[in-house]
């Protein structure tokens, strides 16, 4: 897999694939970092997290979360507000992964 450490310029091809998928997650639905990697058939949760932290600001980043339904540290309040706005199924302050998880289908 190509190097993901560069921060300037265009994202590498793997990052583009991650970002393209994230843009397709419907409002009110979520995928875990691992779900994204599994769907793409490459990388893993950490690589997806790296892409999101480096280049994810222009896509609906709040729709990519931890497998337990929680947001990335420091982003909890903003994620919760966006989830509520979109009608994402919740369990307390976490996304209800059983009901909110998107499998990449239509």
From TrEMBL:
Residues 14-72 form the Methylated-DNA-[protein]-cysteine S-methyltransferase DNA binding domain. Pfam families: DNA_binding_1 (PF01035). CDD domains: ATase. Keywords: DNA damage. InterPro entries: ATL_DNA_repair, MethylDNA_cys_MeTrfase_DNA-bd, MethylDNA_cys_MeTrfase_DNAb, WH-like_DNA-bd_sf. One of its GO terms (molecular function) is catalytic activity. GO terms for biological process: DNA repair. This is Methylated-DNA-[protein]-cysteine S-methyltransferase DNA binding domain-containing protein. It comes from Planotetraspora kaengkrachanensis. The lineage of its organism: Bacteria, Bacillati, Actinomycetota, Actinomycetes, Streptosporangiales.
